[in-house]
């Protein structure tokens, strides 16, 4: 409310404001499918774009058919005769029979299906009139200060162009429902957080003095684009602005969990982890010990963006489409009682899957009482881990997914969710002066486990979000209670006179004029 984002501030002053909360434990990968289907991950099956395929020890990339377990909000509205405009909603497949217009992945953070449109001819029109999105298709990259400035400029240009594209399509006809997602804030949050957060290990006062708050600059561009879109709307139009989850610093111990599980004797890797830090080595020394694979990765990232994108697509297509092999987990399944499931390098949650007999191909842990006792013991061991030399715990809690969810796809999810303490912010060798790049964990059971973080992100998601709503029948003010993102889609459908099949979700009366 300091004047930086005047259009959003105006919506806040006049509209209904509420805190939102995404799905527990799995919000980084499951937020969007959970929002637009009104079902939790145990009912739509998506907890991460790359997921373990049941009956194997391989991680497979999501396919369009994997996102078809439940109807999306706009598919429900379309089936009831509503005209819908669906623009760049993340992790969304194309719906060819949609009653309206849809754009998939013109410019999103996690591209899974490629740039597609309905009608197909719209793709050519967008490219000829607005061009491709200015930012690279994969936001994750090591950057110099000049590169960060260029990246922020690309995101700003992308937000401006996205706003113009949205205005253009809104003017083509009358719409019952329209949704546009500004993924520029998503990419900016991951990559530019250390330009905004003065407490982040990678924050550099000199760079800040030269470049300013690049994250804020991107948000200002989005705010301007939102303001221009609102100017073209009929005054009676209901407008809802959402952040389905939040953003903050990278934290936790996800990089350490595989090593922790090995030290506890519950997981055995098939190969040595060359990135595990030997006590006494500095981040700079560790950087000199890259394997040949790391060297090749460096060379790959020095290629021009169009060549990197081309090679990545070829490699992914061969691996996932031709060979159908996915990526083999680095474990010995014959001797591992459980194994690590990644949910984001700097996320507040990580996953663990039990190597259950009868469910996994080479399962060795008996289901039932034996598995429960194992989980109790493992939970206790994890809760005893702290940051070396302190009494600060590394793990806040360990959750069983069966206690959170009960849908038919529950067996496809991680069995345990490890929630890390969100503070302090953790660093990386890819940004700043490498401060905080060595992640550490200690307990009597595991000794000292250390690992170097080379991942480029400095910002990562949080479960909390925000809703701002205004329009006919919506009374302004601040809601005291938190709203589940699972309640949003059925409420939006009801606002348009439609019913959405859900599993016991609660409508939001304040959005319905009640």
Descriptors for this entry?
16 helices; 514 residues; single chain; globular; 2 domains; 4-stranded mixed sheet; alpha+beta; Alkaline Phosphatase, subunit A
Query: What is the makeup of the main sheet?
Result: 4 strands, mixed
Q: Helical region count?
A: 16
Q: Kindly identify the CATH topology of the largest domain.
A: Alkaline Phosphatase, subunit A
Please, what is the average pLDDT?
89
Our count of domains comes out at 2
- Distance between termini? 28 Å
Beta-strand share of residues:
15-25%
CATH H-level superfamily of the largest domain: Alkaline Phosphatase, subunit A
Known CATH architecture of the largest domain: 3-Layer(aba) Sandwich
Strand order of the largest sheet: 8-18-1-19
Low-confidence stretches: 273-281, 289-293
- Give the CATH class of the largest domain: Alpha Beta
Helix/strand structural class: alpha+beta
Radius of gyration: 23 Å
Helix % is 25-40%
């Amino acid at each position: 409310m300091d004047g930086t984002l005047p259009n959003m501030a105006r919506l806040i002053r006049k509209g209904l404001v509420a805190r939102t909360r995404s799905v527990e434990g799995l919000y980084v990968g499951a937020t969007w499918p959970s929002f637009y289907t009104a079902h939790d991950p145990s009912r739509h099956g998506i907890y991460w774009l790359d997921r373990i395929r049941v009956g194997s020890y391989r991680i497979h990339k999501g396919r369009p058919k994997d996102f078809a377990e439940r109807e999306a909000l706009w598919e429900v509205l379309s089936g009831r005769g509503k005209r819908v405009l669906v623009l760049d909603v993340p992790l969304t497949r194309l719906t060819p029979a949609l009653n309206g217009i849809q754009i998939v992945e013109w410019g999103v953070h996690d591209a899974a299906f490629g740039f597609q449109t309905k009608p197909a001819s719209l793709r050519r029109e967008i490219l000829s009139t607005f061009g491709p999105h200015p930012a690279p298709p994969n936001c994750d990259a090591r950057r110099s200060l000049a590169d960060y400035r260029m990246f922020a400029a690309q995101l700003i240009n992308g937000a401006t162009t996205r706003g113009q594209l949205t205005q253009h399509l809104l003017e083509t006809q009358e719409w019952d429902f329209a949704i546009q997602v500004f993924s520029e804030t998503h990419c900016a949050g991951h990559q530019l957080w250390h330009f905004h957060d003065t407490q982040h290990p990678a924050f550099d006062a000199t760079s800040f003095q030269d470049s300013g708050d690049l994250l804020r600059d991107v948000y200002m561009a989005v705010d301007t684009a939102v303001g221009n879109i609102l100017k073209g709307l009929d005054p009676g139009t209901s407008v809802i602005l959402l952040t389905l989850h939040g953003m903050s610093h990278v934290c936790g111990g996800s990089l350490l969990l595989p090593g922790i599980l090995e030290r506890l004797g519950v997981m055995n890797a098939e190969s040595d982890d060359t990135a595990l830090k030997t006590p006494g080595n500095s981040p700079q020394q560790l950087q000199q010990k890259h394997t040949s694979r790391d060297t090749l990765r460096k060379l790959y990232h020095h290629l021009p963006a169009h060549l990197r994108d081309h090679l990545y697509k070829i490699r992914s297509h061969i691996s996932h489409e031709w060979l159908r092999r996915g990526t083999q987990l680095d474990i010995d399944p014959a001797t591992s009682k459980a194994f690590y499931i990644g949910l984001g390098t700097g996320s507040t949650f990580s996953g663990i899957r039990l190597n259950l007999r009868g469910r996994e191909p080479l399962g060795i842990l008996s289901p039932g009482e034996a598995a429960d006792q194992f989980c109790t013991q493992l939970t206790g061991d994890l809760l005893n881990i702290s940051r070396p030399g302190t009494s600060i715990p590394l793990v806040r809690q360990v959750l069983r997914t069966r206690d959170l969810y009960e849908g038919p796809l529950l067996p496809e999810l991680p069995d345990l969710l490890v929630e890390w303490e969100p503070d302090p912010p953790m660093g990386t060798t890819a940004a700043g002066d490498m401060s905080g790049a060595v992640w550490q964990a200690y307990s009597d059971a595991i000794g000292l486990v250390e690992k170097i973080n080379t991942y480029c992100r400095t910002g990562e998601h949080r479960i909390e979000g925000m809703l701002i709503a205004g329009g006919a029948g919506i009374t302004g003010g601040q809601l005291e209670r938190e709203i589940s993102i699972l309640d949003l889609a059925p409420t939006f459908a009801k606002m348009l006179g439609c019913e959405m099949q859900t599993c016991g979700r609660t409508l939001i009366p304040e959005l319905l004029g009640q």
